């Protein structure tokens, strides 16, 4: 199946040439969250497309991956698609949209750049109301920039957000970075992670991915650093750093740890919190001697008056 492209070129020969190069450009287009924007040879991709009827498109870490060569890329734009051979660049303008299987990237303008081989893209950018989707999550921003050599995509903008199909939400002020080789996504600046009953605030946060039983890469660990605060239905905890395992539901907090639960306050250098059972454990840092001791302050119980309101004694 040959991808359909909408662009305003009059001459048929030019149209075929542009189509060839635009497909080649977009066949290596953005993939995030473990990002694989691996350059692909267009002829080989077409041969695979013609011989294969199925294929996985989003097994990459982080849930975004435009690296599948078994499905064609379709590019559409309101104002046309241009190929500038002198500048070695492709540009799609006006509600530009690139789709491969169940994945897509949209923006007001999409740009792709190459250095030598027009079938191998060195860099791609998306500008204006950028939306990147696949079957499990959607990311939003104002600007996306992909470096093929580093296999890194950086999403920036005023309202950075990533939402999964399970309703988990991550927002950040400065940037979101998606690293293919690391199977990691990094959110920077006033990060807020909303996972239903568990909410995490920090300066930066990194999500790590590994394959599940089906081979699909899913997030299994969150590492939050800097002014960390974790809220659950039963307690609030503060620390310098937190490592949260999504499989075990256990969070390990280190550095200036403080946990508030009801009227009780727990302080120490390290703590383990099970967000599923709401059981917490403080651990002393023996290397600090007496200053590394843990501490618990148990507050008085609340009293309920005759009207049913709760008061402190």
Automatic annotation (TrEMBL):
<feature type="region of interest" description="Disordered">
    <location>
        <begin position="285"/>
        <end position="313"/>
    </location>
</feature>
<dbReference type="InterPro" id="IPR005653">
    <property type="entry name" value="OstA-like_N"/>
</dbReference>
<dbReference type="InterPro" id="IPR052037">
    <property type="entry name" value="LPS_export_LptA"/>
</dbReference>
<feature type="domain" description="Organic solvent tolerance-like N-terminal">
    <location>
        <begin position="174"/>
        <end position="278"/>
    </location>
</feature>
<protein>
    <submittedName>
        <fullName>LptA/OstA family protein</fullName>
    </submittedName>
</protein>
<keyword id="KW-0732">Signal</keyword>
<feature type="domain" description="Organic solvent tolerance-like N-terminal">
    <location>
        <begin position="74"/>
        <end position="173"/>
    </location>
</feature>
<dbReference type="Pfam" id="PF03968">
    <property type="entry name" value="LptD_N"/>
</dbReference>
